[in-house]
Design goal:
There is one protein chain. The chain folds into two domains: about 350 residues, no CATH class; about 100 residues. Helices cover about 65% and strands about 5% of the residues. The chain has 21 helices and five strands. Strands 2-1-3-5-4 form a five-stranded mixed beta sheet, sandwiched between helices. Helix 19 links the parallel strand 1 and strand 2. Helix 5 runs antiparallel to helix 6 and helix 8 runs antiparallel to helix 9. About 30% of the residues are buried.
Length: about 500
């Protein structure tokens, strides 16, 4: 790819154009899709007084950092879709600027601009920038913490120490995964310190990028400051959220696989950690020689220096992304919780394209990426992907009346999503526990004409209440929306 672009004003103009385009893509049709279940959690939590919110989050696994600014936005601008999602738009655009800074820090302004462009048009980035959840904010704070960590390692001044500490605190207050990222920073610091200073006679085995990094004991001061900043939330984390997280993860395994594999993965993580520490110990004791490992790694990665091999691999990744994006890059938990790593992937892709000696191959990959992304964005803007509670509410408003009864399944938040859009006068009744709530199916239908059953996220009860209604009344109609299904029954005795 061409590299003859020079001049700081032009770079600024290009970056400004990328950011402007990114903002347009993220603001476009921002309120077109209805709020889905997780966004209704945001609505519910952020609408509460601060003291009540802290108590509510004791039963959740998310920190308070995302909900506080949402609370302020709701106070001033209300609970519309735009006011709920605009915060994610802001941090989505900010992430693009931070991607540029990180790419520039790792390599040069060329990689920074190209990676920022990739982020700007990324379907995945736009998806989470238009969702009233904390993932866009968390992604921005991750980039901020990574940039501040690198700056601190390069120059451990007190200003950089404060910058790093506050960015980590923001990360921790946004999502519980911040604890893992902080642990990775700490692990990198101590491992790098041991490599660089504890074995000065083995320079050949010290990674070259560590030679330009200064490891300061001020890092301990930074960790202390992070702890003090996080201390107000630390008690809630330890006493409520971590036990709740362990329980909910176990329930997810049982729900998806029928067996709780969390103890197995926890034990595997502990064993892996112990093996890593043992390996580092034996290395420091001269029991392990990494020269052969390094030489083998160089031979392995030299295989990827061939443009044609890189071209084939990138072509495969683009095709896989295009074919599987509607499944893998939506709200699947694995993608949602690793979304913050996306800018690193685009920075790496930018570096690979700019280093390819055959420009025509790099240009082909770039063109295919644009085509794939354009098709994904066309589908994203023209096909609904979020749960259609708005459409379900409109259906009930158009078909039901005060002579009918409406049964909503289980989740309080599902009812909140429905009621957010519903303005009719049909009597509503929640069905929570199979067996215990069966009497409602006859008691609440007395004197009514029709009954409507709305099912959403009925993972635990499955079709229990539908089957009970099938046995009691005449089934009339089924209306299916994304994430929401409505069943109509005639319950009058006429």
């Amino acid at each position: 790819m061409k590299r003859n672009l020079r001049g700081k004003p032009i770079i600024v103009l290009i970056l400004a154009a990328i950011l402007l385009g990114a903002a347009v893509l993220r603001l476009y049709d921002l309120s077109e899709e209805s709020l889905w279940l997780d966004e209704c959690f945001t609505l519910d939590y952020s609408s509460q007084p601060i003291d009540d919110l802290a108590e509510t989050l004791k039963k959740d696994v998310h920190p308070i950092g995302y909900y506080l600014p949402q609370h302020i936005l709701i106070d001033y601008f209300g609970t519309g879709e735009i006011s709920l999602r605009i915060l994610s738009v802001f941090f989505g655009v900010l992430s693009i600027y931070l991607t540029y800074l990180l790419g520039k820090k790792f390599f040069s302004w060329k990689e920074g601009l190209l990676a920022a462009f990739f982020m700007a048009i990324s379907y995945t980035s736009i998806l989470y920038s238009q969702e009233a959840k904390m993932y866009s904010m968390f992604g921005a704070f991750f980039l901020l913490s990574l940039i501040s960590f690198i700056r601190f390692l390069e120059r451990p001044s007190y200003l950089n120490l404060l910058f790093f500490s506050f960015s980590i605190a923001l990360l921790l207050y946004t999502h519980i995964i911040g604890l893992i990222i902080l642990a990775c920073f700490i692990l990198f610091y101590f491992t790098g310190y041991l490599f660089k200073y504890k074995k000065t006679d083995r320079v050949s085995q010290t990674p070259s990028f560590l030679q330009n990094i200064f490891f300061s004991r001020r890092f301990f001061l930074a960790l202390l400051l992070v702890f003090l900043l996080y201390l107000p939330w630390f008690k809630i984390l330890m006493l409520y959220q971590l036990p709740r997280l362990y329980q909910s993860l176990g329930e997810k395994f049982v729900e998806k696989l029928g067996i709780n594999l969390l103890p197995f993965f926890s034990a595997a993580a502990v064993i892996l950690g112990l093996l890593s520490f043992a390996g580092l110990y034996f290395y420091l004791k001269n029991k392990i020689n990494l020269d052969k490992f390094y030489s083998g790694s160089k031979r392995l990665f030299s295989f990827f220096n061939h443009d044609k091999i890189i071209f084939v691999l990138l072509l495969f990744l683009i095709l896989f992304d295009f074919l599987a994006s509607r499944y893998f890059f939506s709200s699947v938990h694995i993608i949602r919780f690793s979304f913050f790593l996306l800018p690193l992937g685009y920075i790496l892709l930018s570096r690979i394209l700019l280093r390819m000696r055959r420009n025509y191959l790099a240009n082909i990959i770039f063109a295919l990426f644009l085509i794939s992304t354009s098709l994904e964005l066309y589908a994203y803007y023209h096909l609904d992907s979020k749960e259609q509670f708005r459409e379900a509410a409109e259906y009930i408003e158009n078909h039901a009346s005060a002579a009918d009864v409406l049964f909503l399944h289980r989740a309080t938040i599902a009812k909140l999503c429905f009621d957010y859009y519903y303005s009719g006068n049909v009597e509503e009744e929640r069905l929570i526990t199979p067996g215990h709530d069966d009497y409602l199916l006859t008691e609440r239908t007395s004197g009514k004409r029709d009954a409507y059953l709305i099912l959403s996220h009925n993972y635990h009860t499955k079709d229990y209440f539908k089957q009970k209604l099938d046995s009691l009344y005449e089934f009339k109609e089924k209306k299916k929306f994304i994430g929401v299904t409505i069943y109509k029954y005639e319950v009058s005795e006429s």
